[in-house]
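Box 3.1 A note on notation
Throughout this textbook, protein chains are presented in two layers. The first layer is the amino acid sequence; the second is a token string describing backbone geometry. Keep the layers aligned when reading.
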Amino acid sequence: MNEKILEKANQIIKKADNASFGVIDDNGYPSVSAVSLCYPENITEIYFTTNIGANKEKRLRQNNKASICYFTTTNNITLVGEAEVLTDQETKSKYWQNWFKEIYGEETALDYCVIKFVTKRVSLFIDGEMAEFTLEK
């Protein structure tokens, strides 16, 4: 694995406001939607929120395989892995952002949950350089 391109990828996701997240729907097809991120540190583990009962949450409970993609005009970071729905209050509080009030009202809202995405496979195209690799945990 090229450490230089990995560090560039980590810097890009730290600045990202959003990303595209793909899950598998009830018919076995990929379904992609935008997600709001919760301060990602690196590409190995990413957190974002959704509503309990939303399509992403329901679909992840049936099939936890997922993909997330960050992109800019010239860069692409595609991650494939597994996701889980977290509803414990400690996690919800840890990842709460003030602007979530517009969506959930408060961090104790019953319909607010956090999605934890763990990367298994990475595909990068950054500054004209390509890299593909898997992550061992």
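The longest strand covers residues 112-126. The chain has a mean pLDDT of 92.
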